[in-house]
Predict the structure.
Amino acid sequence: MNHSKILLVGLGNKTLPNTRHNVGMMVLDSIAKNLNLTWSQNRNWKSDTIQTTIKVKRKEEIREYQVTLLKPRKLMNISGSCVAEAVKDLGIPLQNLYVFHDDMQRDLGKVNLKGGGSANGHNGIKSVIENLKTNEFKRVRVGIGRPPADIDDRSYEVVAGFVLSQFTQSEMDKLEEAVYPLWTKNQGLELLCDKGQIFKPSKPKKKKTVDPSKWEKNQQKKKNSTLLEAEEKVAPIVKTVNTTAAVINEAA
């Protein structure tokens, strides 16, 4: 198998665009838009796909990665067969398979890379595990938050209603600001392909707030200190002047 091949899968329901359950597909759409690429239908995999080459410069060498983006056309809960067919046909090593999906356990915009393990209640991931017959593949979990506290009784009806509803405009803005740039800016896609890592933006430094009363006290201390230093410098001079004056008076 060629380890330069990478498969990025975005889970969701094709017929329910811009819903919270579709955030995996939405991330891949943002990557495709950034690369100015167009989706085409792959009937064998029952998916929409894009294939491209990502080049990464490392010192004196350039590494090339053959990257396939895939959005299943089947419903989320049975989309695993689409992924399994693509993995088999492309000869993708499982360490190079990344499945992007929504995660209710994380706040909106929080992103986490998981190396394997259970589906944690996500039916799309469960379907992928069943069809691959292994859970040893990577998941990029994109936080969508939970339903409002006053209705969040964790029942199937409430959860389903929440994940299948559309993002609000402010939530869409949050994705544009905090999620999509992880792979569309700062060589984020190259970092994922080359090192299997997610770009971590640097946290803005918090501006120190100054208590006015403390600032005034500090300024007074500085003023007193300056006066003291001036007095210490002047004192020897005054002493010398006084001594000289006394000598002159005695001589007179």
Q: What stands out?
A: The two ends are 110 Å apart (CA to CA). The helical segments are 23-34, 80-90, 123-132, 156-163, 169-179, 181-184, 188-195, 212-251. The longest strand covers residues 47-58.
